[in-house]
Amino acid sequence: MEAKNNPKTIRAWAMFDWANSSYNLVITSTIFPAYFTAITSTKENGDEVVFFGHRFINTALSNYVLAAAYMLIVLLLPILTSIADYKGTKKNYMQFFTLMGGLACCGLYFFKLSTLEFGMICFAIAAIGYCGGFVFYNSYLPQIATIDQQDAVSAKGFTYGYIGSVILQVICFLFVLSPKTFGITDATFPARLSFLLVGIWWIGFAQIPFARLPKGQPNAAVSQNYNVISGGFKELGRVWRKVKEMPLLKRYLPAFFFYSMGVQTIMLVAANFGAKELKLPQESLIGVILVIQLVAIGGATLMSRLSEKYGNVKVLIAVVFVWIGVCVAAYLTTSALQFYILAVVVGMVMGGIQSLSRSTYSKFLPQNITDTASYFSFFDVTEKLAIVIGLFCFGFVESLTHSMRNSALILAVFFIIGLILLFVLLSVERKINKNSEISRL
């Protein structure tokens, strides 16, 4: 087995974030939401669309489709990660989901209002590809970095992701802002070309980590007659029983679950909020999301350094406090300038809370485990289930009230619950540390 903290392996690992974060920026945050809202808002039907014979508010539909995609991931990943650990094939699963997601983004090139159903299916498959690859990517963290380096390595991954996605976003931005420069006359072509470029970028740059990262190791302790389907469920149950015996991890996961409902939902609906509530043009929204990404680079690095000084849980508590303020501020925001200021704050805490959440979970795991994919499936399933509930609640409240502002307040409730659970975790952590000090004396 390769030694941990190898710089080349860590850089290659971080390049996976460089590759797939282009999806997260272009498809979920900027160009796709703006394009989707534009083509589905008509004089005849307003913001309502017909999807497989049923009427939906356009932005609520996109939230429901994403929620359905994440729910499928919640059901599949625990089984797949258990099988991956048993057979030692987690890199193969990374490659499979990357190809699935990248090709689905390429399929969005053909998305127009007349092909709404096809476009939304590709949108869902791309989300499944992104989420599916990410859990196996996350599971490499304890395998390639020692516990004292995991905050910094996690931050490096997110930093690479932000930089890579911004570079591609700028390239796409050129086509969107100045189509005539490139002889483009079809108004839908710049956005659809961007979706195609995301797929190519994602699959292309992912070959770097695939060439360098070690393959998973089969679980030699398990019988060769092991049934990969029933055995997958048994392995999942075994890991869950172990998690319940870990006092910090079993308290961290519920806190992570509740604050993730807010974090991930805000990231996914920010562009739609600016477009519908503040009537911001597409160019302004893309610029705002770019600013968020750039500020998030500094946020991830800052939170990593603060965690070294104050501890992960204390920093998470402070960041969740800021997120509660973000939700209240979103409800009160009425001007473009206020939205831009809020975007800078979101960028700072977004990068930090994502990076710190991953490394905190990794630190709470036993450092001698080999079945990291199974353990990280709990982390990823927790996050994706939180997104399902968060998106559904956001879309449901918007459908009832026809206001995304009211939906923002609902997210504040999730953050408050997460904050309370983090305080409980901090109390338990202090008791454990105090007992450890006494036992050493």
**Biggest sheet record:** 2 strands, antiparallel
Shape: globular
- Give the spatial strand order of the biggest sheet: 1-2
Number of helices: 16
- Under CATH, the topology is which? Growth Hormone, Chain: A
Number of domains: 1
CATH superfamily: MFS general substrate transporter like domains
Class derived from helix and strand content: mainly alpha
The CATH architecture term is Up-down Bundle
Number of strands: 2
What order do the SSEs take from the amino end to the carboxyl end, as H and E? HHEEHHHHHHHHHHHHHH
Q: Bin the strand percentage.
A: under 5%
CATH hierarchy, class: Mainly Alpha
Q: State the separation between the terminal residues, measured CA to CA.
A: 36 Å
What would the average pLDDT be, to the nearest integer? 84
Radius of gyration: 21 Å
User: Residue share in helices?
Assistant: over 70%
* Low-confidence runs: none
Q: What's the short version?
A:
By secondary structure, the protein is an all-alpha fold.
Keywords, please?
16 helices, globular, mainly alpha, 441 residues, single chain, 2 strands
Structure, described:
The chain is mostly helical and 441 residues long. The protein has a single domain (7-215, 238-440), classed as Growth Hormone, Chain: A (Up-down Bundle), CATH 1.20.1250.20. The chain is built from 16 helices and 2 strands. It has a two-stranded antiparallel sheet.
Give the secondary structure arrangement, pairings included.
Blueprint: H1 7-27, H2 31-39, E1 48-51, E2 54-57, H3 58-87, H4 90-107, H5 116-138, H6 141-144, H7 150-177, H8 189-205, H9 207-212, H10 230-244, H11 249-277, H12 282-310, H13 312-332, H14 336-364, H15 372-401, H16 404-440
Antiparallel strand pairs: 1-2
